[in-house]
Specification:
Strand order of the largest sheet: 1-2
Structural class: alpha+beta
Number of helices: 6
Oligomer: single chain
Largest sheet: 2 strands, antiparallel
Order of helices and strands: EEHHHEEHHH
Shape: elongated
Distance between the termini: 50 Å
Radius of gyration: 18 Å
Number of strands: 4
Length: 153
């Protein structure tokens, strides 16, 4: 179990099944091997969470955020005459995890907050509530896949 210290005395425990989601999510933030700074950003986000958003469980929101945005279908473009045709295909779990975390990070970075930790926490909360732009990207991809199946048949 991984623990995060809150102030001096309190410790926040994150269950092991959610640590893998958090680590995969944080690996997409890492640039040039600065893992320590990314972990500090995430810890600051958790502390921001505890101060302002006590009503929601942290682990539940993490789980919901990753499940709500994970796509199961990808799209390949194929040129037919002057049209682009989208062909749906089944995504691997790695690719779907990458896409979901990438969508969440890009929408978090486009927010108008000062601290990155606050941006990430608010994005996780909104994706779990299905209100963020990463959810919109997921829905757009799903709609394109449905339309392309109708057009192919």
């Amino acid at each position: 179990m991984q623990t995060i210290q809150r102030k001096k005395f309190e410790k926040i425990e994150i269950r092991p099944q959610y640590i893998t989601d958090y680590k995969k999510f944080s690996q997409h933030l890492i640039k040039k091997g600065k893992k320590y700074t990314v972990e500090n950003i995430f810890k600051q986000g958790v502390l921001h969470w505890m101060k302002h958003l006590d009503s929601l469980e942290f682990e539940d929101v993490l789980k919901k955020a990753f499940v709500c945005v994970k796509p199961g279908v990808g799209l390949k473009t194929k040129r037919k005459g002057s049209k682009n045709i989208y062909i749906p295909y089944r995504l691997t779990t790695r690719r779907s995890e990458y896409l979901s975390s990438n969508w969440m990070l890009t929408s978090a970075l486009s927010r108008n907050k000062r601290k990155l930790s606050e941006k990430i926490v608010e994005e996780l909360v909104e994706t779990s509530l299905k209100k963020s732009s990463s959810n919109k990207k997921y829905e757009e991809m799903f709609k394109l896949a449905e339309e392309s199946l109708i057009n192919v048949r």
